[in-house]
Automatic annotation (TrEMBL):
GO CC annotation terms, alphabetical: plasma membrane
Protein name per Swiss-Prot or TrEMBL: Glycosyltransferase
Pfam families xrefs: Glycos_transf_2
InterPro entries, sorted: Glyco_trans_2-like, Glycosyltransferase_2, Nucleotide-diphossugar_trans
Segments forming a coiled coil: none
């Protein structure tokens, strides 16, 4: 059987309330492009009715395929599993919460089909989320943009489409701590943004990506694509040296002029300050050591339990 023209990879985790709408909207969007397609939903260890609903939807359309992971391995690992399974000439990535509208897939395909571009990705001009979440995300993108030396990473996510040439380059990157938008930018090729306003979750609930997971993903991005943590250590150390030198000069001047020397409180605060800085540096170095350890373990990113593709 010939490979499909278009593959759409969608990771899902406990999305039973969204599955019918997700399947319907995605199928309609893909059928507006071609009838030769596959939609790969990666069940990332869901504990609700997500899997039964996906399998029920497969009865009416076998081009909906379901890749079931053995447990919850995380968003980036689930995407990776789906990308390795995809066989399409063009492969799209889309979150399963419908915050990224599948109707934009046709625009991405139009930009790629004439071989003018290799990758089309969504650029978020606005997002329907709370102010606290938006503030943290903007802060991260600002830091990452200025220190990663990568283009096409500001206000972007996983929502994208790429041809086979770009996909094979993308899949050749084997690191375990994965930030997919950064990896997509890293491989280069001809990339074009598509601007859109990111919508709220279709079911009205809060995003499944918790603050803890967002911060962990931000750490993966910063430590993998930036030397910012090391620069923080360097510049803080240099600043501390300047403060110490200035303090030493002040002690000498105060003794020469017979001024009152600093008391024990100043000395105690100085010791605490230096101790905190040392702990901060040890924590940063520990992050690098742990990430090196994970890479050297070379454990698989995921395990597949079942793949319903026949």
């Amino acid at each position: 059987m010939a490979n499909p023209l278009l593959s759409v990879v969608i990771p899902v985790f406990n999305e039973e309330g969204l599955i019918p709408t997700l399947v319907q909207r995605t199928t309609e969007a893909v059928r507006s492009i071609t009838d030769n397609y596959e939609i790969i939903c990666v069940d990332d260890g869901s504990r609700d009715q997500t899997l039964p609903l996906l399998l029920a939807a497969r009865v009416s359309d076998p081009r909906l395929k379901v890749l079931v992971l053995s447990r919850n391995f995380g968003h980036q690992a689930a995407y990776t599993a789906g990308l390795f399974a995809a066989k399409g000439q063009y492969v799209a990535m889309m979150d399963g919460d419908l915050q990224d509208p599948p109707e934009l897939l046709s625009r991405m395909y139009e930009l790629l089909k004439n071989d003018q571009y290799d990758i089309a990705y969504g650029h978020r001009t606005d997002r329907a989320e709370g102010w606290a979440r938006q503030t943290l995300i903007k802060m991260f993108h600002s830091v990452f943009r200025n220190f990663s030396r990568l283009k096409e990473t500001d206000n972007v996510g996983n929502f994208s489409m790429m041809n086979q040439r770009a996909l094979q380059a993308f899949l050749s990157l084997n690191e375990k701590n994965r930030y997919l938008p950064g990896l997509r930018s890293f491989i280069g090729y001809r990339q074009v943004p598509i601007s859109y306003a990111r919508q709220a979750r279709h079911d009205g609930t809060v995003p499944k990506m918790s603050y803890k997971r967002l911060i962990a993903l931000a750490f993966d991005a910063v430590f993998s694509f930036s030397d910012l943590p090391i620069k923080v250590c360097l510049y803080t150390g240099l600043f501390g040296m300047v403060i110490c030198l200035a303090g030493g000069v002040w002690v000498l001047v105060s003794k020469a002029l017979g001024l009152t020397p600093f008391g024990w409180s100043s000395l105690e605060l100085s010791i605490y300050f230096v101790g905190c800085i040392q702990l901060l540096f040890l924590g940063i170095l520990g992050e690098y050591v742990f990430r090196i350890y994970r890479e050297n373990q070379n454990r698989p990113l995921y395990f597949v339990q079942t793949y319903f593709d026949a």
